């Protein structure tokens, strides 16, 4: 009896949809063809994400010396805004990494802990390439998150001691916009005003770091203050203020002490905000970044892209390993 009712209800609904579609066709409301897409944009952007040393699970999955990982959240973050991902495995020979750099339209530097050795050198080399490509007229955006942000400050100042200590491990925070800051053209440029307001009142961003830079030190350093505009600051557990979002003035480079990818895709810490507003924050950062990548004119050979995409690798679920 229950089944019979359900089926007849479905048939009834189907009948209504059918009547409507006939109405549209007979009145010729549908446009004759779709408008041509903007020829200056690349609608198939590819993002390179640099892998980080270790297995991402402090040895619970692998202790191999050469092992490196990319947290799935960064991959999905690029995908949610309409891009595909090529992993830039930092241990690969430089010539392979260079080939892969020519297959992508933008770069993500992830969070993590490694600040020296081969990893540091590879990040530094890729950062130089980002500058070179942009200087040569190719739009080539970079998003640097947490460790990525910290490494950029070390590389730009040529000072491995530029960072100060802060207490902001596994902590949700607000962001305070710098007074009179012009956000046009920055990562926050297309955020709804009401969401920007909420970010300064509600804890909508996730912090997880032991280092950072105070606004005073940042502004006092000519290398940093001439390269970047400070957009926001945040406050750690001891009420110490640090720079939390910066944007390069002459390059499509945005850097975050916080983690825009976590709100939607990370569940390891109960402190990560997952409210609808928090999800919107992630969405808007991802859309900003990939909209920059669509301006990249680099259109690599399709077959080489397919051979290098992250879909050639198997993901490993680490959520049950006590992360
Ligand atoms: C890695 O090493 C640690 C410490 O020796 C050990 O407890 C762990 O089981 C190892 N992991 C793997 C996957 O072998
Ligand atoms: C380390 O890993 C990379 C990438 O998988 C590989 O190309 C390289 O040959 C490995 N090196 C060693 C010494 O195993």
From TrEMBL:
Lineage: Eukaryota, Viridiplantae, Streptophyta, Embryophyta, Tracheophyta
Keywords attached to this entry: Hydrolase, Secreted, Signal
EC number: 3.4.19.9
Superkingdom of the source species: Eukaryota
Name the record gives this protein: folate gamma-glutamyl hydrolase
One term under GO cellular component: extracellular region
Record flagged with keyword Signal: yes
GO MF terms held by the record: gamma-glutamyl-peptidase activity
Reactions catalysed according to its record: (6S)-5,6,7,8-tetrahydrofolyl-(gamma-L-Glu)(n) + (n-1) H2O = (6S)-5,6,7,8-tetrahydrofolate + (n-1) L-glutamate
Pfam families xref list: Peptidase_C26
Annotated signal peptide: 1-21
InterPro entries on file: Class_I_gatase-like, Pept_C26_g-glut_hydrolase, Peptidase_C26
SUPFAM superfamilies per record: Class I glutamine amidotransferase-like
Keyword Hydrolase part of the UniProt annotation: yes
UniProt record similarity statement: Belongs to the peptidase C26 family.
Coiled-coil regions listed: none
Catalytic residues identified in the record: 146 (nucleophile), 259, 259 (proton donor)
Compartment list: Secreted, Extracellular space
């Amino acid at each position: 009896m229950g089944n019979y009712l359900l089926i007849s209800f479905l048939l009834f609904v189907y009948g209504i949809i059918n009547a409507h579609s006939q109405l549209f066709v007979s009145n010729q409301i549908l446009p004759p063809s779709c408008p041509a897409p903007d020829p200056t944009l690349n609608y198939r952007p590819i993002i390179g994400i640099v892998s980080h040393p270790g297995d991402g699970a402090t040895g619970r999955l692998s202790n191999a010396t050469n092992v490196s990982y990319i947290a799935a959240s960064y991959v999905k973050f690029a995908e949610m805004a309409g891009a595909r991902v090529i992993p830039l495995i930092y241990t690969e020979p430089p010539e392979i990494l260079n080939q892969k750099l020519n297959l992508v339209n933008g770069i993500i530097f992830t969070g993590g802990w490694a600040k020296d050795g081969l990893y540091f050198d590879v990040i530094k080399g890729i950062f130089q390439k980002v500058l070179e490509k942009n200087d040569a007229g190719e739009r080539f955006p970079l998003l640097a998150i947490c460790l990525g942000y910290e490494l950029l400050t070390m590389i730009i100042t040529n000072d491995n001691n530029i960072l100060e200590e802060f207490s902001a491990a596994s902590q949700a925070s607000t962001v305070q916009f710098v007074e009179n800051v012009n956000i046009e053209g920055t990562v926050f440029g297309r955020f709804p005003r009401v969401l920007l307001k909420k970010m300064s009142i509600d804890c909508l961003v996730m912090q997880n770091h032991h280092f950072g830079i105070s606004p005073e030190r940042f502004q006092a350093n000519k290398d940093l203050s001439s390269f970047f505009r400070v957009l926001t600051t945040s406050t750690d557990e001891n009420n110490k203020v640090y720079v939390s979002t910066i944007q390069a003035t002459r390059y499509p480079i945005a850097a975050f002490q916080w983690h825009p990818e976590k709100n939607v895709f990370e569940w390891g810490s109960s402190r990560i905000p997952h409210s609808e507003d928090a999800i919107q924050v992630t969405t808007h950062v991802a859309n900003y970044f990939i909209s920059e990548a669509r301006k990249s004119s680099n259109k690599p050979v399709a077959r080489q892209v397919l051979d290098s995409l992250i879909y050639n690798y198997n993901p490993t679920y680490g959520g049950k390993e006590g992360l």
